[in-house]
């Protein structure tokens, strides 16, 4: 299914099920809830859970992403925004980003590397303290 088809299906379904009666702030709240569920799944996948829980969240992540997209489509429909056209415009300008933001990317990765290095040292020190050494 194409984005334009999903957006139209959402509009039609909202009309037939009366989801179009929900307020815009409620839509934004639902979107925020879905983003929280995406964040929870990513946290579980990256180590805050055992292997079985990681696999469950990995399997569920696609659904959570689609649910977030669904609420984005609802918001776009509320304001008469054609996301397919917006995505095309977005893609047309994306090629300019590499040169414009490459230095920011490098700086961000260096800062992340420093933060992770500091956290590793702190964990190693605390581990030594626990072991009595």
- In percent terms, what proportion of residues is strand? under 5%
Reported for the largest beta sheet, the result is:
none
Unreliable stretches covering 5 or more consecutive residues = none
Assigned CATH superfamily of the largest domain: MazG-like
Q: What is the average per-residue confidence, as pLDDT, rounded to a whole number?
A: 92
Overall CATH class of the largest domain: Mainly Alpha
Structural class: mainly alpha
Can you tell me the overall shape? extended
Number of helices: 5
Which features characterize this protein?
mainly alpha, 133 residues, 0% strand, 2 domains, single chain, Helix Hairpins
Short description:
The protein has 133 residues and is mostly helical. It is built from 5 helices and no strands.
């Amino acid at each position: 299914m194409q984005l334009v088809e999903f957006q139209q299906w959402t509009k039609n379904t909202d009309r037939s099920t009366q989801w179009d009666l929900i307020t815009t702030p409620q839509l934004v709240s639902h979107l925020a809830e879905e983003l929280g569920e995406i964040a929870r799944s990513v946290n579980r996948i990256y180590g805050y859970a055992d292997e079985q829980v990681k696999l469950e969240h990995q399997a569920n992540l696609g659904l959570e992403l689609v649910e977030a997209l669904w609420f984005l489509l609802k918001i776009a429909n509320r304001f008469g925004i054609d996301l397919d056209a917006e995505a095309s415009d977005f893609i047309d300008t994306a090629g300019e980003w590499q040169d414009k933001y490459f230095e920011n990317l490098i700086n961000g990765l260096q800062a992340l590397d420093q933060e992770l290095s500091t956290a590793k040292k702190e964990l190693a020190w605390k581990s030594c303290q626990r072991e009595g050494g």
